[in-house]
C-alpha cells in the first residue's frame, strides 16, 4: 500500500519494448529462452511452440500458463529466462529519454513503471537505462506470490492502483507497446492511455515473430476502443502536454 496519501495523478510507463526499442531484439532472445524452457520440461519443439503461443494468448504471459497448469517454479523460470539475458550488451542509456523523464512536472504527477516482468528484471532495465532515479514506484508481476496476476488481467490493474494509493483511475496516464494491455486499462476507466508502436520493427509475442504494423489495426479497432498510437515517446510532449514542465 502507499505509505501516505498522494493525490497527484500517475504516469505509468511499461518497460520492455517501450522504454527501449524493439530493435534491441530482447523479445527475440526472450522467446528463445522461453521456448528452451518448455523443451526442458519434456515437450517437443512443436508442442513447446503451441503451448507458448496458447499461454501467451490466453493469459498475456507464458509463465502465467505454466504456473497454472504445470509444476513450475516461477523464480527458476525467471532466472533461466529474464535473468540470463545479456541486457548490458543489448540496451544503452538514451539521453533524450532521460530528458523526457526529467521534463515531467513532478509537482503535477508521479511517474511509475508498470511491467509484466519480475522485480529484478525491471529494476535491472531501469538501472541500465539510467532511469531508476526518475521512477518513483514499480508495479511488477510478483512471481513469489501464488497465483500472481499480470497484464491484461483486471486484477493486475486493480492491485496497481491499490499499491499506488490511486482512488480515481480516470486520472491515470498509461503507455504500453501491447495494445491489449492498453485496451484493458481503458476498460477499467484509466483516463489517458496511449500505445507505443514502432512501425516496421519485429517483436516476438507468444514465441511468434510479429512485425509491428501501425497501418493494420482493424482487429483492435473492432474492440470499440480508439487508442492513440505514437511511434516515439517524445510525442508524449504533444499528447500529454499538461504533465510536462512549462517551457521557459
Strand-helix topology:
Elements (H helix, E strand, L loop, with lengths): L9 E4 L12 H15 L4 H15 L2 H8 L4 H7 L6 H4 L4 H8 L7 E5 L4 H10 L8 E3 L14 H11 L8 E4 L2 H9 L4 E5 L5 E4 L2 E4 L6 H4 L7 E2 L5 H4 L9
Parallel strand pairs: 1-2, 1-4, 2-3, 4-5, 5-8
Antiparallel strand pairs: 6-7
Helix pairs in contact: 1-2, 2-3
Provide an overview of this structure:
- This protein is 38% helix and 12% strand.
- With 248 residues, the chain is an alpha/beta fold.
- Strands 3-2-1-4-5-8 form a 6-stranded parallel sheet, with helices on one face.
- Helix 9 links the parallel strand 4 (173-176) and strand 5 (192-196).
- The chain is globular and about 60 Å long.
- This is Pyrimidine 5-nucleotidase.
- It holds the Pfam family Hydrolase.
- GO terms for molecular function: nucleotidase activity.
Strand order of the largest sheet: 3-2-1-4-5-8
Enumerate how many helices there are, as a single number.
11
What summary fits the major beta sheet? Answer: 6 strands, parallel
CATH class of the largest domain: Alpha Beta
Share of residues in strands: 5-15%
Distance between the termini: 37 Å
**Portion in helices:** 25-40%
Counted beta strands: 8
Principal-axis shape equals globular
GO molecular function, one term: nucleotidase activity
Protein name: Pyrimidine 5-nucleotidase
Pfam family, one: Hydrolase
Keywords:
248 residues, globular, 6-stranded parallel beta sheet, DNA polymerase, domain 1, 8 strands, two-stranded antiparallel ribbon, alpha/beta, Rossmann fold
Amino acid at each position: 500500500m502507499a505509505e501516505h496519501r498522494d493525490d497527484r495523478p500517475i504516469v505509468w510507463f511499461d518497460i520492455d519494448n517501450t522504454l527501449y526499442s524493439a530493435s534491441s531484439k530482447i523479445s527475440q532472445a526472450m522467446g528463445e529462452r522461453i521456448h528452451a524452457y518448455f523443451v526442458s520440461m519434456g515437450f517437443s519443439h512443436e508442442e513447446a511452440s503451441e503451448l507458448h503461443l496458447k499461454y501467451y494468448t490466453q493469459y498475456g504471459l507464458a509463465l502465467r500458463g505454466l504456473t497454472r497448469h504445470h509444476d513450475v517454479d516461477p523464480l527458476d523460470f525467471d532466472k533461466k529466462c529474464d535473468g540470463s539475458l545479456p541486457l548490458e550488451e543489448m540496451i544503452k542509456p538514451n539521453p533524450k529519454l532521460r530528458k523526457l523523464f526529467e521534463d515531467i512536472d513532478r509537482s503535477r504527477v508521479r511517474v511509475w513503471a508498470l511491467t509484466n516482468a519480475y522485480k529484478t528484471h525491471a529494476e535491472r532495465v531501469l538501472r541500465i537505462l539510467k532511469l531508476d532515479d526518475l521512477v518513483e514506484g514499480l508495479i511488477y508481476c510478483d512471481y513469489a506470490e501464488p497465483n500472481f496476476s499480470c497484464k491484461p488481467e483486471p486484477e493486475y490493474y486493480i492491485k496497481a492502483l491499490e499499491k499506488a494509493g490511486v482512488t480515481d483511475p480516470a486520472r491515470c496516464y498509461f503507455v504500453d507497446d501491447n495494445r491489449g494491455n492498453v485496451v484493458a486499462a481503458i476498460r477499467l476507466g484509466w483516463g489517458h492511455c496511449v500505445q507505443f508502436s514502432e512501425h516496421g520493427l519485429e517483436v516476438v509475442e507468444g514465441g511468434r515473430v510479429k512485425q509491428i504494423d501501425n497501418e493494420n489495426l482493424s482487429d483492435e479497432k473492432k474492440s470499440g476502443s480508439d487508442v492513440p498510437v505514437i511511434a516515439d515517446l517524445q510525442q508524449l510532449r504533444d499528447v500529454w502536454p499538461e504533465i510536462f514542465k512549462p517551457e521557459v
